[in-house]
Design a protein that fits this description.
By secondary structure, the protein is an alpha+beta fold. The chain has 7 helices and 7 strands, in the order βααβααααβαββββ. The chain folds into 2 domains: 82 residues, no CATH class; 94 residues, no CATH class.
Length: 219
């Protein structure tokens, strides 16, 4: 037997060829006090009936290893996939309020760490809404470019890029019903999408020289 995407085993289960993982046997052997000789076999049988183990053939592979629908999935990927969707479990989804009353919700906009600020260019929104090319043309002409210009973008270009993609358009507080009570959190609206309007992405531009910038890093 093998566990899901896991190691093979070495004991015998009635009607099967192989059984439990080596770690299971090692842990049981470390237990103090008397232990039934068939304890590991019984436990492996339980795992088998629960679908936590799979029978392997002479070549050490299981039917799971030949299933084209599962070949590209790791165990933790499959675990996350059903857990983040409705219908495969009865755990709460969305705002759960897991730390309600224990931790204060973080602010929607992280406080500035620096005392000095740089004023960035803000384009005329009405002008760019009027003069920008239509979405169909933008999508058709979109390409990935991996050869970049030697010169960094200017402060004005950086300001327009951030204004179009990452500026805070609105900021407010709202209340949500959770399994642990009512939670009040601060929210923002920004041009790029984010699940639950949480906007966890932080952008850190870096100034390479006076008036020249790189996008720097994100977190």
């Amino acid at each position: 037997m093998s566990n899901s995407r896991g190691a093979t085993a070495a004991a015998q289960v009635p009607g099967c060829r192989a059984v439990a993982t080596r770690r299971l046997e090692e842990k049981l052997n470390k237990k103090k006090g008397p232990r039934r000789p068939e304890a590991s076999t019984d436990l492996a049988s339980l795992f088998l009936s629960a679908g936590m183990l799979a029978e392997v053939g002479e070549d050490g592979t299981s039917a799971e290893d030949e299933n084209v629908s599962l070949l590209s999935w790791e165990f933790h990927d499959l675990l996350f996939h059903p857990r983040s969707r409705e219908g495969r479990h009865d755990a709460p989804l969305g705002p759960t309020g897991r730390f309600l009353g224990r931790l204060e919700p973080p602010p929607a906009v992280k406080p500035a760490a620096a005392t000095e600020t740089i004023e960035l260019y803000r384009p005329d929104l009405e002008r760019i809404e009027k003069d920008d090319p239509p979405l169909a043309r933008v999508m058709e002409q979109r390409r990935s470019i991996r050869r970049y210009a030697a010169e960094p973008i200017t402060r004005e270009q950086l300001g327009e890029f951030l204004y179009r993609t990452a500026r805070v358009r609105a900021r407010w507080s709202d209340e949500f019903e959770t399994p642990n009570g009512v939670a009040r959190i601060e929210l923002t609206s920004r041009p790029h999408p984010s699940g639950g309007a949480l906007y966890a992405l932080e952008i850190y531009p870096e100034e390479t020289s006076v008036g020249e910038f790189l996008l720097g890093s994100t977190r």
